[in-house]
Amino acid sequence: MAVTVSIPTILRTHTGGEKSVPAEGATVSEVIENLDAKHGGIKARLVTDGSLHRFVNVYVNDEDVRFAGGLQAPVADGDTVTILPAVAGGA
Amino acid sequence: MLVIRSDLAAEIVAHARRDHPDEACGVIAGPEGSDRPERIIPMANAERSPTFYRFDSAEQLRVWREMDAADEVPVVIYHSHTATEAYPSRTDIGLAAEPDAHYVLVSTREQGTDELRSYRIIDGVVTEEPVEVIESYMFAHTGVDDVPDQG
To answer: Per the CB < 8 Å rule, is A57 touching B91?
Structure first.
């Protein structure tokens, strides 16, 4: 499956400044592995101990994968995978 | 330095007061490369908490896409502290993920006193910056382009 991955500002150091890059995979997990093979270090920014980092949002098209199987969420040809760091904090 | 229109600064404070005792949060978009906050978008605090905030993930996706489509970036990301000073907490610092944004904090701990301060937070390092509140960007040099802005 060929997908387009939208990269947030803070991770563009891994993609040579590119805002979106192509990747392959049948699940979010495979897409991240494929991304990491081409843009080393990116997986470590997204995945901790085998699950998606709590403060990273990943969407397949319009759906937050947290509600669609997490890293195992399926992706289809032509999908857009969007990575956005959560905007969060606390007093 | 953050240069911000007075009506936008007032809207941040009003939002913070409205949501008190919960933390309020939002973003002010501006043209990419301008460093000029123009379009305020109050966001829902998905945590509805007096000690924590998090943008609702679906709303964040929608707003970030709108900004992308309009060649805008989040120039300001703001939130309130309801019982402590307007200084980034350890959590705020650890989770800050927009290196180009001005992180604006407002404290609503005291009635009648509005404390609004601005910071850069990059790789875990906080740098406070001066805030200049102005009536209009028309005559202010706030960015790389010298073209006066409407308003």
So the answer is: no
